[in-house]
Predict the structure.
Amino acid sequence: MGSTMPETLVTTALQRDLLAHAPAPGLFVYSNRGGQHCGDVYRTLLHEHGALRSWSRRGECYDNAQDKSLWSRRKTEVFELREWPVFADLADAQASVAEYFDYYWLKNNNSSG
């Protein structure tokens, strides 16, 4: 997460995730149609790891309903509990996103049910 979204931000995040999780070939990686997801570096990373790029159809927001639902839950569970401005600075926003996704991942991957 950054104050802008250059291609290097997206490719660095993808590279870290691919290295951390070593997914099996055939992984679908959803992205929007932004220029950051169309670049050669991004496409090469996907190809090198046997991952497939998945895009929604143009103008079809429901193709990405799972992702939209996750961000909606985050807004409800986190944003609405904070006073405006929601974040003190970029570092606060980054920490909030990391904390929420760690929480969400643990909650949904807990083997005890």
